[in-house]
Amino acid sequence: MMSPNARALIEKIEQLPPDRIAEVEDFVDLIRTREQDRALTRAAAKTSAASFAAVWDNPEDDVYDAL
User: Fold this and answer.
1) For residue 60, what pLDDT is reported?
2) CA distance 12 to 18
3) Residue 40 belongs to what domain range?
């Protein structure tokens, strides 16, 4: 079931001329691509955190934790 906000947005889009609808579609694609890129970056950071734990978490570098 579609949310009321989504339905209202679709109704607004349907009132636009075709060239503007194409712009909206391009913008939505841009937002989706950005979100996918961010998700990939978060996943890569999460995956690499374990590998870097020994480098980041050591007594010699504890002084930097307070900065």
Assistant:
1) 76
2) 13
3) 17-65
